[in-house]
Specification:
This protein has 412 residues and is of the alpha+beta class. It has 11 helices and 12 strands. α1 runs antiparallel to α2, α3 packs antiparallel against α4 and α4 runs antiparallel to α5. The chain is globular and about 90 Å long. The structure holds aspartic acid.
Length: 412
């Protein structure tokens, strides 16, 4: 947009310079013509002297005009070169939006009221509230959507309630392998980490990958080497131990042995449902810039360095100022195959449909058609939101520019 404006301005200046030069040349030529006709021998000498003098003045004027012309032409080129750097910020919003908003999720799955104690429900609700109000106040004070997304996810990563950071689920080998990703809708820059085992807040490392490395996705030992180099604190793996998650793993393994499963089977709802709590956040800031982030421990009993959708840009996370920002949660294998987050954005972009329509189509039709389940939270460039899921529940919350807060857990 800005580039187009500069191009238009430059073209206008070029046109004015050409017009002035043309008039100038025309006036001088007509004087030459007059002199040739009128100042023949025997004709009026006084008139010819006046013409000759005027010719000199005109010649000087012409040189001056041409010099000014060249100067303007030169400046036009510089105006273009000196125009704000718009190449990297492909979708940087130029508007000062009169709205902003934030949406979060804390995982989707078979979350039923009958299985939830009152105290646990209160614990989830108040943690979701703490997380979303933190992000909301950053946005309200003029902070960026990336700052809001990171700070909001940090609160959920530090809570044992969610399957990310402190509360991450266990792998088959009784370790915790964490994945996270973040994306900036203004630049389409993105960063992600997969399979890290010593990082307290993987979303911060994903941001570091985006901001301070030439890469998008780093995994395992290499990602941790990068973290050490960037001064990240390395946690002892025992930090990630929570009794609840460990017991879940033991139950799943017991069942696996009993049923003599040859390999993990996420098809088994018992196994599939032992992993709630991936966290995600999407935000629109006051400058109209969108961002999305997701952080998870993956799925209980995962093996062989399995990586889900959460650190995959386009599947677990996607943000584009032209459309929307999306964070996914659910059965990662299907979300990767359906490219859920990007598909929602692409449907808005190519079909011109609303965020709600696109989210509904992907989550209620496309993902289940493959056999997967889960949900998303999303916000579009105008502040419209979607909290779509095809499971029994999804921890979720939304806060708009007016400060109105919605927190929900179950289907309604
Ligand atoms: N999508 C995550 C994964 O597959 C898990 C989840 O969101 O519950 O790793």
């Amino acid at each position: 947009m800005l580039e187009q404006m500069y191009e238009k301005k430059t073209k206008n200046l070029h046109f004015i310079v050409l017009l002035v030069s043309f008039i100038d040349v025309f006036v001088v030529c007509s004087h030459y013509f007059l002199q040739l006709n009128l100042c023949k021998p025997s004709k009026n000498k006084g008139f010819c002297i006046i013409l000759a003098n005027r010719k000199k003045t005109l010649a000087m004027k012409q040189i001056l005009t041409l010099l000014i012309g060249f100067f303007i032409l030169f400046s036009c080129n510089n105006v273009k070169k000196g125009a704000p750097e718009v190449k990297k910020e492909v979708n940087k919003s130029e508007k000062i939006a009169n709205t902003f908003g934030i949406v979060i999720h804390g995982g989707a799955g078979t979350i039923l009221k009958k299985n939830m104690s009152d105290s646990l429900e209160i614990a989830y609700t108040s943690k979701l509230k703490e997380a979303i109000t933190t992000g909301h106040s950053i946005l309200n004070n003029g902070g960026t959507s990336l700052e809001a997304v990171t700070a909001t996810i940090n609160i959920m990563e530090d809570s044992p309630l969610f399957n990310s950071g402190k509360g991450a689920v266990f792998t088959h080998d009784e370790t915790n392998e964490l994945d996270a990703s973040i994306m900036d809708g203004a630049t389409l820059n993105a960063g992600a980490v997969a399979g890290v085992t010593h990082i307290k807040n993987p979303i911060n490392l994903a941001l570091e990958v985006m901001n301070n490395s030439p890469h998008v996705l780093l995994a395992g030992e290499g990602a941790e080497q990068f973290a050490r180099q960037q001064g990240f604190e390395m946690m002892d793996p025992s930090y990630f131990y929570t009794e609840k998650r460990y017991q879940s793993l033991l139950r799943v393994k017991e069942r696996e042995m009993r049923e003599q499963y040859k390999s993990i089977s996420f098809e088994d709802s018992f196994i599939k449902d032992s992993k709630f709590g991936t966290v995600g956040c999407v935000a629109l800031d006051k400058n109209g810039n969108l961002a999305a982030g997701t952080s998870t421990g993956g799925m209980t009993n995962k093996r062989w360095n399995r990586i889900g959708d959460s650190p995959i840009i386009g599947a677990g996370t996607y943000a584009n100022n032209a459309t929307c920002a999306v964070s996914s949660t659910g059965w990662g294998e299907y979300f990767i195959r359906a490219m859920v987050a990007h598909d929602i954005s692409a449907m808005m972009e190519y079909k011109g449909i609303s965020l709600q329509e696109a989210a509904k189509e992907v989550i209620q039709n496309k993902v289940p058609a493959l056999g997967g389940d889960g949900g998303i939270v999303a916000i579009d460039k105008d502040g419209n939101i979607a909290m779509e899921f095809n499971t029994a529940g999804m921890y979720r919350a939304h806060m708009n520019a007016k400060g109105e807060l919605i927190i929900k857990i179950y289907k309604e």
